[in-house]
Write a structure and sequence with these properties.
285 residues, alpha/beta, seven-stranded parallel beta sheet
Amino acid sequence: MRIFVAGASGVIGRRLLPKLTAAGHEVIGMTSRAENVPRIEAAGARAVAVDIFDRDGVMRALDEARPDIVIHQLTALKDWNLEDNAMIRKEGTRNLVDAAIASGARRMIAQSIAWAYEPGETPASETDGLDIEAAPPRKTTIEGVTALERAVAEMPSFVILRYGMLYGPDTWYAPDGLIAGRVRRGEMPATDGVTSFLHVDDAAQAAALALDWPDGIVNIVDDEPAAGTEWLPHYAALLGAPAPELKPGRAGWERGASNARARREYGWTPTHGSWRTGFERGVAR
């Protein structure tokens, strides 16, 4: 198949491209920065440098590529810029979907998130609603996610992957990452809020497998939703950081998510089933 990957040089995209080319697919990787072109080409893909907000440029890129499938892995999360990331989800996704439809692409696989659900007491399933009543600053994230998923659902065929909190190399949770720095400085208290994690390698593998999955929305998270009082002290110890302050309580939406549907209906099994072993392999020195 001919596959167009938007966000090909990102943390997931750079792991996804080799999987697709090794499987024999013809891959076109889009990046917003020309300096990323050699990395994309080294993975065996053809590279195209286009800013996702350049609507005409995106339309031309898809028209020239004529892909069967478009994979949307675009984010702007490096510096925790929620506004920029929401803009990519809104305007960027709109441009990508319109260009994909115009080019004749039949399917889109898109990255969403598994912590956008409405408040609840148990890990969220795909039948739960999104947190559309959220107040700022969370409201910015939810509006972006809602816009992305609505636009992607306009495709003839689509799979929306609601990823858990990404960890592993090149993420906020890497030893040199943003979260690691905050934990070392004692800036993150351990609360009762529940997080569902996902290793970046499992995220990339799910995107590759989704080429053949049924249409729909699916949580891609590990097997062990965990409260901050559980995972954060463990993570801090692995970093050699001070033990975090314990702060009881959680926001209603901090509930984690269930991967039961991914396992039952899609046959997906994460390689890193628990953040415990994943953290230990990636953080411990």
